[in-house]
């Protein structure tokens, strides 16, 4: 298609840049699990290259298992059950791993208010009210580095004591990140499959929860252990789930959550955001249950997860937030089908496609590195991508002498444009003719000047046109994310609305039917219809039709003070002068001559209310 378009525009084949795609595999680097380990690719914009990566699961792989245990007071019985786990788990795992190492760490919560009681008597012993000696609350305490000595593991567990805190959620995710990134302290082995087991009976705090304690600094994702104690707990917020997920993947760690059934649903939602994680429901944290959970997670979930779900992660190894590359990973069939009940240590193949859809902003060639890694594996495939964006005909992109004019030389010596429909314009004045009056920008910055005429650029938003590319059909107000609310067209930067609509973005109906109240009046006679909605005249009124007024009083209630004043001081204007400051604007006085001679009857008219002077009782008469 591209070649055809270029030929159609009279570009000869010898001047065309041919698409160049190369895939080179470096076979000199050995691998035991992932192959090939190193690939080089050359791409041009609009091109893509595919290659195959195979992943092999080794039998009896070394395993590192780190126990991260919630030691808040409610976990006392569960902590006791761990004392017999080490040796028994080691014996069970010999069927699946030739080398099992264990480590241990504990957590509670951030040791600041309101998560803990900061009374001096409670800081060092949170359980003093129960006459129990507890250890102080802590965000994370690394207790035992990875070891194959199961007796040492059991001895460390027996020395552990519970702690206490105030609120229900704990700091489990905060502690998980430290256990993942503090590799040297924890002692993760490079060649081992890494499992991080979190034991808790409560949900965990999430990012932004620390604002309750006045901690607003986001977590930096780094290790902050000093003397095996997490010192950044009181300075930084809890990590986000995305941050924790990245660190687990970056350090090749599978996470296992052992939680009581009451919290199962909360952690079940969490699993969807943490690749390579496994959730186990335990009725009681008993040693046999824990051992079964770990073995089941390793044998039937972690190993099968890769083969059945085919999890592959692609990392773009540059600091730019946006890059012009796209990745596609398609798992192919394995070399063995018996995967469900019995794990066959076989191979999985992935067809990976890397494409380039554009060039960098500067238009220069670019070298980037992409790392392809199976989830939980410590081997990866490094893909080196060479992006070729520049043409051999130079940075100007011209398929002829760079000094030659793009305009045709005529017999009289004047330079004219090669395209006949653009007319004959002097080449020396071309840029001047492409600038609007008073503007220094060529073609309004939205086109190129070719022989004195603006050739407007194409935009995915719409058409750009005009002598200086100053016009378009998309620079109009939007309504609900749609140009002119999809109820009009954009002409010269203004919306021309369809019949029945008005407004800058065609968002206002011309009809006032939506403002018609049940009594047939617009806005109940108390407002105006603006853009299809009632705007009440008096702020006391509210409602879709200004029909509500909770603060308004009835006619009698609003004037009763005035009536009472006149009844107390007399009804003549002279006698009732004291009432004029409260209701003078509402009162008019008139003489009413009765049928009997010499008797004068006075009437006070307040709105529709009339008070008779003889009987001293109010009566309602229409005016």
Automatic annotation (TrEMBL):
Keyword presence, Ligase: no
Any one Gene Ontology molecular-function term assigned to this protein's record: integrin binding
Highest taxon, organism lineage: Eukaryota
Pfam family, one: Integrin_beta
Subcellular location(s) per record: Cell membrane
Compositionally biased spans, kind Polar residues: 406-415
GO biological process: cell adhesion mediated by integrin; cell migration; cell-cell adhesion; integrin-mediated signaling pathway
SUPFAM superfamilies: EGF/Laminin, Integrin domains, vWA-like
Span list, region Disordered: 399-422
Any GO CC annotation of this UniProt entry: focal adhesion
InterPro entries reported for this sequence: EGF_extracell, EGF_integrin_2, Integrin_bsu, Integrin_bsu_VWA, Integrin_dom_sf, Integrin_I-EGF_CS, vWFA_dom_sf
Protein's UniProt keywords contain Glycoprotein: yes
Residues covered by the Integrin beta subunit VWA domain: 1-391
Family classification: Belongs to the integrin beta chain family.
PANTHER family: INTEGRIN BETA SUBUNIT, INTEGRIN BETA-8
Protein name: Integrin beta
